[in-house]
Design goal:
The chain has 822 residues and is α/β, with parallel strands linked by helices. 62% of the residues lie in helices and 11% in strands. Strand 5 and strand 6 form a beta hairpin.
Length: 822
């Protein structure tokens, strides 16, 4: 062996350190996934959470691991003790984890000062992510090749590498669940980072201690016996290169499938942070189980290349199985998640559905890695592992980025899954083509071989043709699709780069609903129309001369469209993450939104709203935000204290911000967190209610840099002017006959609600507490009780309104009538 311990201690079958190394790799995997979740969360706050940003993050993270796996065998001498190299790598990862935690906020300001739009902006996002992620991920990628020098390039040794890989993945499963369900839910990114660093430290210490248990020596053995090489590669020395391509295709299909299936499963289960943690954990669990199976098979198999090819062939069926489950089975399971108040019961259902759909493919992808190692066991183990790992990772990068940014928006999830079947079939064909000599000997005649080769082509084609489209009802209603089949007409379905969107209409009404990723986000229903108009009309009444506005989230365009009727408006900027949305808003909701998408004063920015506000130098008279529910993963970044501070900094003097807060699909703790966080930045903020039949439904928060003062006489005089007749008409369309009716929706202010908001958890960038709170109550409908608790503190705000005695008295009467209904 080229390097390893002495012959007395380097038997992979009996060396007592091998099980210990499994535990060390478990710890490494656990820490790595905690870091990954924390770093992705932190970096998304800076560079955004769009598909482009996620592609940059994924490419940088996996690219660093690829570099590490390639560089270590070439840069670190084989004379160095593998366990001590492993110790240094783990210490380095922990140090970089802590440096990133404290250094990223400072780097973010540098980034924000220089970033631009277009291709240049994407390059800067990539540069920032590379500076943050490459150093620690290079070290992560080097850990497996470092320990690979401890084993021989024999079937038993290669199988141990598979077990190490599987143990690392098992640790990753535990780290994923630990971070998603405990560390970040109960604590924050600081605690999670120090826990991961402590694990790194413990692993490093253990590696250092155990390095004294066996003496490291360099053996003269560098290759397995010639007959072993001949057994595996009977035709050409170029054959190993084809195995690298095969494992790259396997990595590409694995990460591509994870992207596609995560998107579809999040529709069925609800896109909470817990759903994503469960999906990732199940996928990693399958990889770990498969790696263990593959390592066991590699130990005893004389033809690992055949098993590798069979894995790829079986993957065509596994991909078709999951596609069937996601489109034609799971959406029709008679499950209504709102039937129970126990979030843990729903988590159990989610776990079972994920295992049922994802496990077959994940196991086969996991088995492919150790089998690929066994199929190329003719070189020094560290280089072997580095090469196979790098090829698999490069394929994963291409799959993750390609399917999220290119294939899904271009051809949709149905065709993307057919492409996945094609990739798996191509990998199988490549393996059998690489070992064509052995393949021919396995059959009695050339005819038999031809039949098998034909099956390798025809069976995947048949499986791919059988993959169905995702039901429009699933894209529209997500986890409640089972209750909507046969009740609605789907007018439009589209799968964009960032979200899947749909437009529906019920059979018993004329209202159109606009859906994003399984949720109604806007509609022409009077209740929703009133909320969408309130977000724009209340600041339009209060601000005397609106000229520029920023609308966060296009939706049906109703909020943005309400600004078009103002006489002084010069520019309406809409920041929208998904390019499909404005197109749909123009086509299906043009009447309700006054054709705002095609208005010459409208400018549409396709970007993550937080990233846009962070990097733009513009200021606005009004910034209004109607984001998706805060329990949807990534949405809570638009409800943090730091985000509201950014918004406040981008207001012109006298500027106004309005923010939507839902009471349904939520609970008291989540609503308190949203309101209290807003009031932390806008201490004179006010709340306005879009109630439903006198009962709570959703709210509008309003804030200004200073105290808000509403002069009723000035507003009434303004509405009486001819140039404001369109605004008055917009108000009447949603049931507000006068400004008094609008202001009668008053539901409270910060100073009065202080007792109710006491002990409310503030949502900050470093913890994103809201997404964990809201994720636990995404299936609850407690809006009536939440609203009743809140308005118990409401009283007439004498300091908020100004005007003549008659106007004040008229408002009090209007409020009394409105409040009496409640």
């Amino acid at each position: 062996m080229h390097n390893g311990v002495s012959k007395e201690s380097n038997s992979t079958a009996s060396c007592p350190l091998q099980p210990i190394l499994l535990l060390l790799f478990f710890g490494s995997g656990c820490a790595a996934l905690i870091y990954e979740i924390v770093w992705f969360q932190m970096l998304q706050l800076v560079i955004g959470s769009s598909a482009v940003s996620m592609g940059v993050l994924l490419g940088t993270f996996m690219g660093g691991m690829c570099l590490g796996s390639l560089l270590l065998p070439r840069m670190i001498s084989a004379a160095r003790h593998p366990l001590r190299i492993y110790m240094l790598l783990e210490l380095g990862i922990g140090i970089f984890g802590i440096l990133i935690l404290f250094g990223m906020p400072a780097a973010a300001w540098v980034y924000a000062a220089h970033v631009g739009s277009g291709l240049g902006g994407i390059r800067l996002r990539g540069l920032f992510a590379a500076v943050c992620l490459l150093p620690p991920t290079i070290l992560m990628g080097a850990t497996l090749p470092a320990i690979a020098r401890w084993v021989k390039a024999t079937p038993g040794g290669i199988s141990w590498l598979g077990f190490f890989y599987g143990s690392n993945i098992a640790g990753a499963v535990f780290g994923c669940l630990l971070a998603g369900f405990y560390l970040l839910r109960i604590y924050d990114s600081v605690v999670a980072t120090f826990v991961a660093a402590a694990i790194n430290g413990a692993v490093a210490l253990a590696a250092f201690v155990f390095s004294f248990a066996a003496r490291h020596e360099i053996s003269a053995e560098t290759q397995p016996p010639p007959d072993a090489a001949e057994e595996n590669f009977p035709v050409s020395k170029k054959t190993p290169w084809l195995v690298y391509v095969t494992i790259a295709l396997s990595g590409m299909s694995a990460l591509g499938a994870e992207v596609v299936w995560t998107r579809l499963l999040s529709l069925t289960l609800g896109g909470t942070v817990y759903t994503f943690s469960i999906i990732l954990a199940v996928f990693l669990f399958g990889l770990g189980v498969g790696s263990g199976i593959g390592a066991t098979l590699a130990r005893s198999s004389r033809q690992p290349w055949a098993l590798l090819g069979c894995c790829q062939l079986l993957l065509t069926g596994a991909i078709a199985w999951t596609a069937y489950m996601l489109a034609q089975s799971l959406p029709y399971w008679p499950i209504d998640p709102s039937l129970t108040r126990s979030v843990w019961l729903n988590f159990q259902l989610d776990l079972v559905r994920c295992l049922w759909a994802l496990l077959p493919g994940a196991v086969l992808w996991g088995a492919s890695f150790p089998l690929a190692l066994a199929a190329v066991r003719i070189q020094e183990p560290a280089r072997l592992v580095g090469g196979i790992y790098a090829a698999n990772t490069v394929g994963g990068i291409l799959g993750g980025i390609g399917f999220s940014i290119v294939f899904i928006p271009l051809i949709g999830t149905q065709q993307s899954q057919r492409l996945l079947v094609g990739l798996a079939a191509a990998a199988a064909l490549l393996v059998f083509a690489a070992f064509i000599g052995k393949f021919r000997k396995s059959f009695a005649s050339a005819f038999g071989g031809a039949v098998i080769l034909a099956a390798l082509v025809l069976v995947p084609l048949a499986l791919a043709r059988g993959i169905a489209k995702v039901p429009g009802e699933l894209i529209a209603y997500g986890r409640y699709a089972a209750t909507e089949f046969g009740q609605i007409d789907i007018l439009y379905v589209g799968e964009g780069m960032n979200n899947s969107v749909a437009v529906s209409q019920g059979w018993d009404d004329d209202f159109r609903n606009f859906h994003i990723s399984g949720k109604i986000e806007a509609s022409s229903d009077p209740q929703d129309m009133r909320l969408q108009r309130m977000l724009s009309d209340i600041p339009a009444l209060i601000h005397p001369h609106l000229r520029s506005v920023l609308v966060v989230g296009c939706g049906a365009g109703v909020t943005a469209g309400a600004f078009t009727v103002l006489p002084d408006i010069k520019q309406i900027t809409i920041c929208e993450l998904e390019p499909l949305v404005p197109k749909i808003a123009a086509e299906y909701f043009g009447e309700e939104n006054y054709n705002v998408v095609n208005d010459p004063r409208t400018r549409i920015i396709y970007d993550d709203a937080r990233h846009y506000i962070l990097t733009t130098r513009e200021k606005f008279d009004v910034i209004t935000s109607d984001p998706i529910h805060p329990w949807v993963k990534g949405s809570a970044t638009l409800y943090t204290k730091e985000y509201f501070e950014l918004v406040k900094a981008h207001l012109n003097p006298g500027g106004i911000v309005t923010q939507w807060v839902p009471l349904y699909e939520s609970d008291t703790d989540a609503v308190k967190s949203e309101i209290a966080t807003f009031f932390e930045v806008f201490p004179d903020g006010t709340i306005w209610s879009n109630d439903q039949n006198g009962k709570g439904y959703d709210l509008v928060l309003l804030g200004q840099a200073g105290p808000t003062k509403i002069n009723l006489d000035e507003i009434a005089a303004r509405l009486a002017q001819p140039q404001y007749s369109a605004l008055a008409g917009s108000l009447r369309e949603v049931g507000f006959d006068s400004a008094f009716d609008v202001f009668a929706t008053y539901a409270g202010q910060a100073c009065d609600l202080a007792p109710w908001l006491k002990n409310a958890q503030i949502n900050r960038d470093r913890n994103l507490r809201l997404q964990y709170l809201a994720g636990l109550s995404s299936n609850w409908y407690h809006n009536e009780s939440i609203y009743e608790d809140m308005i118990a503190y409401r009283k007439f705000p004498n300091t908020l309104f100004a005007g003549s005695d008659d106007s004040i008295e008229n408002l009090k009467i209007t409020m009394a009538k409105a409040w009496l209904k409640k």
